[in-house]
Amino acid sequence: MFTRIQAVLCSLMLCLPACADAVPLPAVPELQRRMAAAPIEVEVVEPQPVAAGERPHVVYLGYPVAKVLRLILGAGWKTAGASVEFRALDGYVSHVPVERFDRYPAYLVFAKKDTREFRLDNLVPHGQGVSLAPYYLVWDNIRHPELLKEGDTYWPYQVHEIALLPAAGVAGEMSPDALDLEKYCLSCHRVNGRGSSKVPQDLALQTKALGEARFLAWVLAPTSVKPDTGMPAIAGGMAEADRRALAGRLFRYLNALPRQ
Ligand code: HEC
Q1: How far is the CA of 211 from the centre of ligand 1 (A)?
Q2: Cis before 97 (ω within 30)
Q3: Which residue has the higher pLDDT, 187 or 107?
Q4: Which residues form a coiled coil (predicted)?
Q5: Which range has highest mean pLDDT (78-82, 125-129, 158-162, 178-182)?
Q6: Strand partners of residue 45
Q7: For a surface tag, which of 150, 172, 219, 235 has the fewest beta carbons within 10 Å of its beta carbon?
């Protein structure tokens, strides 16, 4: 039973009844019923790596994510310093600081316009196309072309659960390096138990074992080390010097982390 004390504790921690636990997203017809509004058309430049480096425009159908978050997490979802965790079916997670939703319009989409297919075409390296269902988080990178250089960071697909992570211990106290690690790496990796379950090994330990030269070679161009890897090259849309600087900072940060 959900007691009043639990309710007070949860409201203090700024999360939902099952504190910090993920909330499943409803099936699409149920979401449409609860939103009580027709989905809108959202045109974006597809940032996921598709064939031959193409960046096609795609029109999706969905809802402004802020409205969905309000419906699912309640009016208090937008709390300074908090992040929203989007969890995908395969263990991928994306932590989006809530402030970002004020800066850039984002949408939770569940279909493509004019086709029954809700998949990425020709996603390399798999070649077959990958299902985006049930939900895909997309950003208006047409009105905000500066988002293009971030690539597919913050574009989780196969999203089936969300959770609100309160400020303390998430974005609140984090250094710029920790935030970049979260943004670029912890959607697939984990460090000291934090992050995704997709790659089970601890990334800090892997980094120390590799050493700087092999780490940089790997992170800047994973397919040149292992052609069939599922890991994308770091920040593909950035200038080469910026990518190298980012990779170098992440190496120093990971290499210096104390073992836990
Ligand atoms: C989309 C998922 C994904 C993201 C994002 C990602 N990785 Fe990986 N990474 C993988 C996978 C999968 C492997 C396992 C290697 C393989 O077999 O493909 C891996 C392996 C590694 C390894 C071990 C390499 C070795 O030779 O032992 C390191 C180090 C690494 N990643 C660093 C990073 C860093 C740093 C970032 C952030 C800049 C990052 N990864 C982002 C998926 C990802």
Answers
A1: 14
A2: no
A3: 107
A4: none
A5: 158-162
A6: 57
A7: 172
